[in-house]
Amino acid sequence: MAQSPYLAQQHSPQSSPSQSLRAASPPATVETIVSYLVASKRSLGSIHLVHRATNILTEARASIESTTALLAKTTYLRRSLASQLKILRGVQYELDSAAQTIQQEFQTIIQELDDTGARLLQCIDFLKETSIEEAFKSTTEAEGVTGKVTLHDFVDDNGVEQIKQAMRAAIDNVQNDEHEINQSIQTLEEDLQSINDVLVNRTNDSGAESDLKQPTISATLSILEHHAKEMAQGLESLVKHFDLCVTAIKHTEGCGEAVVQTMNTNAEDLPEAVGMGMEELQAPAQPMNEEERLEMLQVLENDANEVDEVVMELQDRHAEMEAQLERIVPWREQQENVYADVTTAFRLMDKISGRLSGYVAETARHASRWNEEKAKIEDGIGGMEELCSYYTNFLHAYDGLIVEVDRRRAAKKAMERVVVQAHSQLDQLYESDRQLRVKFRENMGEFLPGDIWHGVNDLPPRFEINRVDEGFEASVPDIPRRTVEEAARRFSKGR
């Protein structure tokens, strides 16, 4: 804004006092000069804005300095906290990896258990589907077994049920332990996440609510100092203008009485603690010639036109300083909240550190219990494999039994054929010998005395071929040829 020579604390270099007098307007009236004085005195009420500007500058400087120090401390603590949090995350990763490894081993061994169990059930189904041949029924009926008889009737399932129960108990134990360790790891995750929530979410929330950005410290202070300096200079210009008004009153006839009357009439319109300055008016005036007086009145008139503009500028600068302070104060409060959150996070970190050994110990116990239950499950798998092997060998042996029965039946028939052939040959030898003996007696008997050999007239000896173990071996079952062939094919392939 353009200021008068007195408000700007300088005179125009292009005009001399004589030129100013010639260019000046008619001298101001008493009423005008008094009105200038009243307006000038009223403008001095802006001094409270200058005082407030000083306070704002002091408060802003203190806030920025303390907040900057707090921000540096917060930054250091956050870095330290982030470093410790990284270590805890590493521990959590190791615990989670250990739990995942156990879970993968558990899934693998469960798959092996399921496969072995499926094979065992398949073997049992084969036993149930394999009926005993009718040729063997006489033996089973003699033992009290009636109806449809299968190979399954000759095995005991109690071992299978015992293994299943043991496996179910081991699996339940592992799953319970797995649930507990997962809960432990989840608790650690929640603890660490609570720190993240304090460090990240609250800061983001507060930033979203206030939409604050960290002010540029040097720029903010520079702006405030500039406004404060300009306001002080503006107030100084208003004071000088008031002094000029007092000087004009002293050198204008009749202004003293007008000032008193105006003071009595307009005292209520003046700001609080602002009087008319009668002590200044009563002081002796400095000598001044007419040319100087006219120049002074011209300057006074020019300055009077600038008073309202100076006051408005003071108000604008004050408002701008208040706005700057309003941005600094929430920023300071936000940084204080962030620092409080960091200290809260450190307290949470202390609690987590105290519980960390418990998390590690729980994982170690889980690994130990898993090794115990794993050994039980492996023993169960081994037992089921033994049963599978036993049942498979049973099926294989039954096929071998059918093949063996057929072989024995064939051997028996071969032996019987030999016996029949031997019986026929013996009969032929006997008849031939008998006929030759008869013929010998007929030809030579009358010439031989009877007492030479009493056996000369005996018949040939008779021989029989009989089973020496009769009654000690059951009869060989007669199994259909097709059944024997199928059993032989399975037996040769090992089922």
TrEMBL record:
Gene Ontology cellular component terms for the protein in this record: Atg1/ULK1 kinase complex; phagophore assembly site membrane
Protein's membrane topology: Peripheral membrane protein
InterPro entries: Atg17, ATG17-like_dom
GO biological process: autophagosome assembly; autophagy of mitochondrion; piecemeal microautophagy of the nucleus
Region (Disordered): 1-24
Molecular-function annotations in GO: molecular adaptor activity; protein kinase activator activity
KW Coiled coil (keyword) present: yes
Principal place of residence: cytoplasm
Domain of life: Eukaryota
Keyword terms, alphabetized: Autophagy, Coiled coil, Cytoplasm, Membrane
UniProt key word Cell membrane: no
Coiled-coil region list: 160-191, 297-324
Comp. bias (Low complexity): 8-24
Compartment annotation: Cytoplasm; Preautophagosomal structure membrane
Family: Belongs to the ATG17 family.
Name of the protein described by the UniProt record: Autophagy-related protein 17
Classification lineage: Eukaryota, Fungi, Dikarya, Ascomycota, Pezizomycotina
Record gene name: atg17
